[in-house]
Amino acid sequence: ASFYLTCKLGGERSVIVYLGHSNWQLNDLKWLLPLVISGLIVGRCWLWLMVLLRNVVLDRITRDIGLIALGGIAIYLATLFAPAINFSGMINFHLLATSWQHQSIAFLLLQSLLKLALLTICLNTGWLGGEIFPVLFCATAQGIALSQLLPQIDPIFLIGIFAISMGTVILESPLIAGGVMSIMFLPPSLLSVSLGLTAGLFLIRRYLAPHVSWLK
To answer: How far is 167 from 161, CA to CA, in rounded Å?
Structure first.
């Protein structure tokens, strides 16, 4: 709420960018569990790769000046060749609500891969920034890619479920992933589903994850 009011009173662009309209049906709920499991597995794989990249960087570059230089070079290259990934995910979320919904699967996966790599490098080389919006940006982009493979499901329903599930693993917080997606990026017609999923993931992470390592 504070973040929203700060942007509103400060004259910034709206932080609420709905990905589109959802006309989900009860029939779509049969895909809920497969989508959640897919999002959790994909999120776990990306988190493992991000940790691997972090370890590679920190093992090979030990001096602060070298780390800062690497981060600067990564940002410069992103500016030249993939400018859409070079800012907070919040700033460019409008792309996911418009033109990127018509991009190819390969484009969406490549852009999300590069953004996660850039995020990992920046966070571990001294460059300032947060991880919430970049991670949700990437999770949403991958949800859009998946929706192209499953056209029989309401696309915004699919994107929201997948993004919340994947974001929960990488951010290690279903309340952050589900809360931000539910309020800022998913239409009100999905609020009951997204909040219910968020609550379910919270309970799973709190009571089941300690006994199932890949859910942590």
So the answer is: 10
Encode 5-30: b = buried (16+ Cβ within 10 Å), e = exposed. eeeeeeeeeebebbbeebebeeebee
pLDDT the model gives residue 143: 96
**Rounded to an integer, what distance in angstroms lies between the CA atom of residue 85 and that of residue 119?**
9
Burial 190-200 (b: 16+ CB within 10 A, else e): beebbbebbee
**DSSP sequence for 165-194:** HHHHHHHT-HHHHHHHIIIIIS-GGGHHHH
What pTM value is reported for the model?
0.88
10 Å CB burial of residue 164 (0-12, 13-18, 19+) is: buried
pLDDT in tens, 153-196: 999 999 999 999 999 999 999 999 999 999 889 999 999 999 99
Lookup: tokens for 171: 């951010």
